[in-house]
Amino acid sequence: MTTTDNKILTSAIETYRHYAGQPTLSDIESCRQDSNDEILHITPYFSTMDLVKLEDLTYTRSFTYSLKNRQLLFTSNVTPINKNLVRRLASPDGQYLALVTKETKGEQDLYYVQIWHDEHLIFNYEVNDNKISPHGKILPKNDYGSFFEWSPDSRRLIFTAEEKRKPLKSYFTAEKLDDIGEPASIYRENWGEQMELFETSVVCIFDLDIKQVKLIENQPKDLYFGQCTWTTNPDECILVAFRCEPYRLGLIYCENRSTALFKCNWRNNEWIQLTEFDQLCRLFPRHLPKKDNQFVYLQSDVYRAHAQCKRLILFNTETKQEKILIDRID
Questions:
Q1: C-alpha count within 13 angstroms, C-beta hemisphere, residue 167
Q2: Interatomic CA distance for residues 15 and 98, integer angstroms
Q3: Does residue 193 fall inside a structural domain?
Q4: 8 located within any domain
Q5: 258: CB partners within 8 A, 6+ apart
Q6: Number of domains the chain contains
Q7: Per-residue pLDDT tens for 301-313?
Q8: Residue 90 has what pLDDT?
Q9: I need a surface site. Which of 5, 155, 240, 296 has the fewest CB within 10 A?
């Protein structure tokens, strides 16, 4: 290799290292304003590459911004995110932090849930603990197949998890036939396409007032709930449902799949279907602050392009009427 070739190669390597090390915004954990709407607190996630370990890295840092003076007031240090961290979400008031971590012991994955108040761990449990946990493993972040949301008053946490399954026991050691559980060889259909971990979903609530985890009952068994937003009523939320039958297809990036909107009262275990499974795809509902019985969502047509223009729709939960706020332009 000539001296010129060596310089070109060295320059190419340094250029690649420089640009590969540039962080990219991958997610925003929370974005909240103070009571006077003058201070904005943002906690984003960034992704970058470790070219020594040849792996992706994720880190977070917090920013405090003055909306009145348009100045950045505070920037925290970089905090690397542990690979065992499944979920992390601060409450809207900034006082609580919900964490879900995973540990592997032998061939078994153990999931732990922690609720922090400032620097104090006020509640935690193991998902496999049948006395406390009514659900299976908590699903990782996915914009289409899972949610993990604090209520606006920071008193409830709603999330999706797998159904609780009986641990596999031998026929000779089980006291009852019902205790044997399903064999590990039984096939369980998943959603595929980067969602192989997603099979079934149950919707659960953590109530901070009584420090208890509750499975919301009466959930339709033939539906999969993948998106959620709280309403102005602390007992209600709006959810997006996908049909599991006659077969499952990938959900990620497929914004041309028929969906339906539901309203759920978690305290009364009541589910109300707001829309039918028609020729429309309804995604990403967001409730309007200080507006009772109204929320907005994005609407697209079924069976057309995956990435198509969408309509912004205003929905009234009392009258079940939809109003186009911004129409699509083909």
A1: 10
A2: 39
A3: no
A4: yes
A5: 243, 277, 278, 279, 280, 281, 302
A6: 1
A7: 988 877 788 999 9
A8: 87
A9: 5
118 within a domain of the structure (yes/no) = no
pTM, entire model: 0.82
Encode pLDDT of 98-154 as tens digits.
999 998 887 778 899 999 998 899 999 998 888 888 898 888 888 888 899 999 889
For the ranges 28-37, 43-52, 267-276, the lowest mean pLDDT is seen at 28-37
What is d(CA 266, CA 150) in angstroms, rounded to the nearest whole number? Answer: 14
pLDDT (mean) for 12-24: 86
Q: What is the pLDDT of residue 82?
A: 81
Strands 148-150 and 156-161: antiparallel
Residue 288 lies in a domain: no
- Mean pLDDT estimate for the chain: 85
Nearest Cα to 169, choosing from 159, 184, 154, 157? 184
Please give the single-letter amino acid code of residue 288. Answer: L
Cα 69 from chain centre: 33
By residue range, what is the domain housing residue 67? 1-76
Q: Which amino acid is at 266?
A: W
3-state SS string for the chain: CCHHHHHHHHHHHHHHHHHHCCCEEEEEEEEEECCCCCEEEEEEEEEEEECCCCEEEEEECCEEEECCCCEEEEECCCEECCCCEEEEEECCCCCEEEEEEEEEECCEEEEEEEEEECCEEEEEEECCCCCCCCCCCECCCCCCCCCEEECCCCCEEEEEECCCCCCCCCCCCCCCHHHCCCCCCCCCCCCCCCCCCCCCCEEEEEECCCCEEEECCCCCCCEEEEEEEECCCCCEEEEEEEECCCCCCCCCCCCCCCEEEEEEECCCCEEEECCCCCCEEEEEEEECCCCCCEEEEEEEECCCCCCCCCEEEEEECCCCEEEEEECCCC
pLDDT tens string 209-241: 999 999 999 999 889 998 999 998 999 999 999
